[in-house]
Amino acid sequence: MFKQPPREVVREHMKLILPDRTIRVADPVPATVETILQREGINPLEVMVSRDGKLIPEDTLVSGDDELRIIRISHGG
User: Fold this and answer.
1) How far is CA 53 from the centre of its chain?
2) What is the rounded CA–CA span in Å between residue 27 and residue 35?
3) I want to staple 12 with a disulfide (CB 3.0 to 4.6 A). Which of 19, 41, 65, 75 is the partner?
4) CA distance linking residue 7 with residue 74, whole number of Å
5) Exposed, middle or buried by CB within 10 Å (0-12, 13-18, 19+), for 55?
6) Which CATH number does the domain housing residue 50 bear?
7) 7 pLDDT exceeds 70?
8) Is 60 helix (H, G, I), strand (E, B) or coil?
9) Predicted confidence band of residue 66 (pLDDT cuts 50, 70, 90)
10) CB of 32 closer than 8 Å to CB of 62
């Protein structure tokens, strides 16, 4: 009987698309949108986040190979 080589673990990465269209790769560990924004130094009160073209609230749990688009909120008078 032949011994099989160990399986290579393929790790997914979460992709963050920032308002200036740059892309950051985040750890795929499950976390809320708010936690991820804070880790990246982004104020959750200044942005909205979408996944698959739909806006998601800050308490949404994201992970794995999710792609999050961060949209800066413009306000003024």
Assistant:
1) 14
2) 12
3) 65
4) 48
5) exposed
6) 3.10.20.90
7) no
8) coil
9) very high
10) yes
Structural domain includes residue 23: yes
Q: What is the pLDDT of residue 8?
A: 58
Q: Tell me the pLDDT tens digit for each residue of 12-62.
A: 789 999 999 999 998 889 999 999 999 999 999 999 999 999 999 999 999
Q: Which residue matches tokens 């792609």? A: 67
Cβ pair 28, 14 in contact under 8 A: yes
Residue 7 lies in a domain: no
Q: Using the structure block, give the residue that is written with the tokens 């200044």.
A: 46
Number of domains in the chain: 1
What residue has token string 């999050």? 68
Are the C-beta atoms of 69 and 52 separated by less than 8 Å? no
